[in-house]
Amino acid sequence: MAVALEDRAKRVFGDHYPQAVAFWNLLVEHGFERGLIGPREVDRLWERHILNSAVVAELLPEGCRVVDVGSGAGLPGIPLAIARPDLDLTLLEPMARRVAWLTEVVDALGLKTVVLRGRAEEAAVRERLAGSDVVTARAVAPLERLTQWCLPLVRPGGQLVALKGESAAEELERDAEAVRRAGGIRPRVVVCGGDVLELPTTVVLMERDEQASRRDGSRRKRKDR
Length: 225
Description:
Elements lengths: L2 H11 L3 H15 L13 H10 L10 E5 L7 H7 L4 E6 L2 H14 L4 E4 L5 H7 L2 E7 L4 H8 L3 E11 L3 H7 L1 H6 L2 E9 L8 E8 L1 H15 L1
Parallel strand pairs: 1-2, 1-4, 2-3, 4-5
Antiparallel strand pairs: 5-7, 6-7
Helix pairs in contact: 1-3, 2-4, 3-4
């Protein structure tokens, strides 16, 4: 790792920097062969993936309950868990081989992080994870679908933090009505890590409407009758 990049990584991870290096090593050694990252991603793991994920920690309240939906290779969940050990973090992933990977990483790094197999839209998952303070997702789906899947896991007033690319504003404009119907309010595009990354992380941030939660509760009561 170049010295300048190492300094930036140490600024982000602080005393937990050795864990971040260990995660990087695991991805370098096993990520491609296990279908977690493409061959071109190895040389830019720090900048484009690990730090890109970790800087989102600046948006998360102290000690909050976080669900990382579609965690995959562990992004952004594992970097967030390393940078912010105060978080109550669950990594949600539907694919068995990726769940196995995430479990191995959590054990190897000694993280206090739960790995759960399932999809955000499944009733059992919603029952278990509903009321979370924050839900994160990185490169999972367009906002139209992502909000339908993720917002039911968020408590009223909690946040959906969707890591997106440079076209985030256009996507938000395109899917604004779907976001509103799903219960997302005050959606906006923010950037994180401007003092650390050459290309800051672009995030679509929104809160969950109190009224959406009440509608969900009413629907559940009707089904139970």
